[in-house]
Automatic annotation (TrEMBL):
<feature type="transmembrane region" description="Helical">
    <location>
        <begin position="278"/>
        <end position="296"/>
    </location>
</feature>
<dbReference type="GO" id="GO:0000139">
    <property type="term" value="C:Golgi membrane"/>
</dbReference>
<keyword id="KW-0472">Membrane</keyword>
<keyword id="KW-0812">Transmembrane</keyword>
<dbReference type="Pfam" id="PF04080">
    <property type="entry name" value="Per1"/>
</dbReference>
<protein>
    <recommendedName>
        <fullName>Post-GPI attachment to proteins factor 3</fullName>
    </recommendedName>
</protein>
<keyword id="KW-1133">Transmembrane helix</keyword>
<feature type="transmembrane region" description="Helical">
    <location>
        <begin position="308"/>
        <end position="326"/>
    </location>
</feature>
<feature type="transmembrane region" description="Helical">
    <location>
        <begin position="158"/>
        <end position="181"/>
    </location>
</feature>
<dbReference type="InterPro" id="IPR007217">
    <property type="entry name" value="Per1-like"/>
</dbReference>
<keyword id="KW-0333">Golgi apparatus</keyword>
<keyword id="KW-0337">GPI-anchor biosynthesis</keyword>
<feature type="transmembrane region" description="Helical">
    <location>
        <begin position="124"/>
        <end position="146"/>
    </location>
</feature>
<dbReference type="GO" id="GO:0005789">
    <property type="term" value="C:endoplasmic reticulum membrane"/>
</dbReference>
<feature type="transmembrane region" description="Helical">
    <location>
        <begin position="249"/>
        <end position="271"/>
    </location>
</feature>
<feature type="signal peptide">
    <location>
        <begin position="1"/>
        <end position="19"/>
    </location>
</feature>
<comment type="function">
    <text>Involved in the lipid remodeling steps of GPI-anchor maturation.</text>
</comment>
Length: 342
């Protein structure tokens, strides 16, 4: 039982770490002065940015009329700020390294190196790979259930959780898509989309865990379980998007939902006589260990690979095994239902 405590502990620590460690680097007066200077002059050292060319009244100096629209101006100022922050951060981290100081975070993130304008290339690539594995898992489930296993006379599957796994597949692919977008360009909109899809996925997998582990097959009972959870998840997403993007609160909510479903699967894996029980165990233990990676938040190796990227890497084999469990479950349920009808 001790690893349960570990997960709970790591989640509560995770909240603390996130809440305290908002920004050590961006409070640094040298960094602040650099960004301020850059937003005025458009240059960091010898590097200058085209988007930072504003006249004194905030209008761009050159360019045709359509480039002077307010919306475009906002984009330009946005780009200017993000380029200034990035190059000041790189310059400051190089200085710090020469002085023998440890790396620090800027605006809640480590100093990542960009590649082709992508902020965290490794996390983007791993998110894309996760998306591909999810797609592969979902398609193989689809083929198994509709083409390999027998169907009911009304053309529906014997397996009672088909629809739920389809929703799971779609929500997780959506979530990995926005994760890839967010890691390539971190602005408020992409951040909100990434967080919202992750919360939606986590909330739905909790519902799925309850329905599958407790064998809830009756439509009315399913609605009774799902409705309050859907209401809660929707409220939480609305709160994050339209009221306050509170990282601490979101961590607690996600942590609670994550631990709850791991516990449900773990207990179920302990009592069930499911033939693919071991796959459940591996995913539950692996999932718990993977969460520890999020806790052990080390700075990116060579500016590229950090704990978060490794966490995205660890979900790839777990996802593969997870879909394999889902396929086994579909086969197992179908064959036991067929035995009953005979
Ligand atoms: Zn991520």
């Amino acid at each position: 039982m001790s690893w349960y405590n570990w997960i709970v502990l790591s989640f509560s620590l995770l909240c603390l770490v996130r809440a305290l460690d908002a920004s050590a680097g961006d409070a640094d007066p040298i960094y602040k002065a650099c960004v301020e200077q850059c937003e005025k002059t458009g240059c960091v050292g010898t590097k200058c940015f085209q988007h930072c060319k504003f006249s004194s009244d905030g209008k761009p100096i050159d360019g045709p009329w359509y480039l002077q629209e307010p919306l475009y101006m906002q984009w330009k100022q946005w780009d200017c700020r993000s380029d200034c922050r990035y190059h000041c951060m790189v310059a400051r981290e190089e200085e710090r390294q020469k002085l023998g100081d440890k790396p620090v975070k800027y605006h809640g993130k480590w100093a990542f190196r960009r590649a082709y304008g992508i902020q965290e290339p490794v996390s983007v690539a791993l998110s894309a790979l996760n998306l591909a594995i999810q797609f592969h898992g979902w398609v193989s489930f689809f083929i198994l259930i509709y083409y390999k296993l027998p169907l009911r006379p009304n053309k529906k599957t014997y397996y009672e959780y088909t629809g739920l796994w389809h929703i799971y597949g779609i929500l997780s692919m959506n979530s990995w898509f926005w994760s890839a977008v967010f890691h390539s360009r971190d602005v408020e909109l992409t951040e909100k989309l990434d967080y919202s899809s992750a919360v939606a996925l986590l909330g739905f997998t909790l519902i799925l865990a309850i329905l599958r582990a407790f064998n809830v097959r009756d439509e009315a009972a399913r609605v009774m379980v799902a409705a309050p959870l859907i209401a809660f998840i929707t409220t939480h997403i609305m709160y994050l998007n339209f009221y306050n993007l509170d990282y601490g609160l979101n961590m607690k909510v996600c942590g609670a939902m994550g631990v709850a479903q791991l516990l449900i699967w773990a207990v179920w894996a302990g009592v069930t006589r499911h033939p693919s029980q071991w796959k459940l165990w591996v995913v539950v233990v692996g999932g718990g260990l993977a969460m520890l990676l999020e806790l052990y938040d080390f700075p990116p190796y060579r500016g590229f690979v950090d704990a978060h990227a490794l966490w995205h890497a660890s979900t790839i084999p777990l996802t593969y095994l997870w879909w394999s469990f889902v396929r086994d479950d579909a086969e197992f349920r179908t064959s036991s239902l067929l035995k009953k009808t005979k």
